[in-house]
Design brief:
295 residues; alpha+beta; 9-stranded mixed sheet; 8-stranded mixed sheet; 5 helices; 17 strands
């Protein structure tokens, strides 16, 4: 296994713990195009939401169907949306949603389900839903320190999705008490590295323009994770978004979004080399969209 290094200095205990655990847990990520944001919408909003996504970002969809995707009886409309800037799994439950489904933010494809669950436990996660079969494979739900829920999934027949043009950000909000624990655990599990750990990042990213926050950026074969370390004093809609999507031209994307019925909740603003906005799609899904200005 090749050696991984951190791009910045972290607390010594964090670095040592990560090195030891990585020797014990395998790398089971497949690729960021297989990591889907889980979106739950009312059945009556399902088609309108999917249509607005494709109109905004482009891409394709799989055939819509009705399935049982939980280990206990339930029924949901389900469809996969493959956009150039990220993949989404859309659910429109026709029955009440069994707990804790609907609280997981993403689904991560893994190459070995048993190995992934063992690694998650070794690396500090709690298994909220043990492995169960679904119509096309297996799933489990884990919770990382700080209360971050993610679903792990494996397909009986390996999927083949096109590579992404840009990698979306999994936007995670955690407290200062759990930020290091979450970062350590997720780095160990993902075999990732810290791109940056800025203790004085501009608070405008979470709607608090006069404040600063700690912001950690992580990359791995699962994709990108941005960790916002906050006191929980978040103005709406911050903290409600799960994903940040990078597009080539923010203004053009917002025009397409508005034409598709998307509401701009936070108008575009500049931060360093990034322009960003917050939007809400039909059905209630909130997302950050940004573009990066080339220098």
């Amino acid at each position: 296994m090749r050696t991984r290094t951190f791009s910045i200095l972290l607390p010594a205990a964090l670095f040592v713990a990560g090195t030891a655990s990585r020797a014990a847990t395998p790398e089971i990520a497949v690729g960021p195009q297989y990591d889907t944001t889980h979106v739950y919408v009312a059945p009556q909003d399902f088609d309108r939401f999917v249509t607005s996504l494709v109109a905004t970002f482009g891409g394709t969809t799989t055939k819509q169907g009705v399935f049982t995707v939980t280990p206990t009886p339930s029924s949901t409309m389900s469809q996969l949306v493959l956009t150039p800037v990220g993949s989404l799994s859309v659910f429109g439950f026709k029955t009440p949603v069994p707990y804790p489904f609907g609280l997981e933010r993403t689904g991560y494809l893994v190459s070995d389900m048993d190995g992934a669950v063992r690694a998650a436990k070794t690396d500090g996660a709690d298994v909220l839903v043990s492995t169960f079969n679904d119509p096309i494979g297996q799933d489990a739900v884990v919770q990382w320190p700080g209360g971050v829920n993610m679903q792990l999934y494996w397909h009986t027949t390996a999927p083949s999705y096109p590579a992404l043009q840009t990698i979306p950000e999994n936007r995670v909000y955690v407290s200062s008490e759990r930020a290091d624990a979450f970062t350590r655990s997720f780095l160990e599990f993902s075999h990732g590295k810290v791109l940056s750990d800025d203790p004085q990042a501009a608070g405008i990213e979470i709607g608090r323009a006069s404040d600063t926050i700690r912001r950690i950026r992580i990359t791995s074969q699962f994709g990108l994770v941005t960790v916002f370390v906050t006191d929980g004093h978040l103005p709406y809609p911050y903290g409600r978004e799960m994903t940040g999507y990078e597009v080539a031209n923010l203004s053009e994307t917002l025009k397409k979004a508005k034409a598709a019925g998307v509401t701009v909740l936070v108008e575009s603003y500049s931060l360093g080399d990034r322009r960003a906005a917050m939007v809400q799609f039909p059905g209630g899904y909130i997302a950050e969209i940004h573009s990066v200005e080339q220098k």
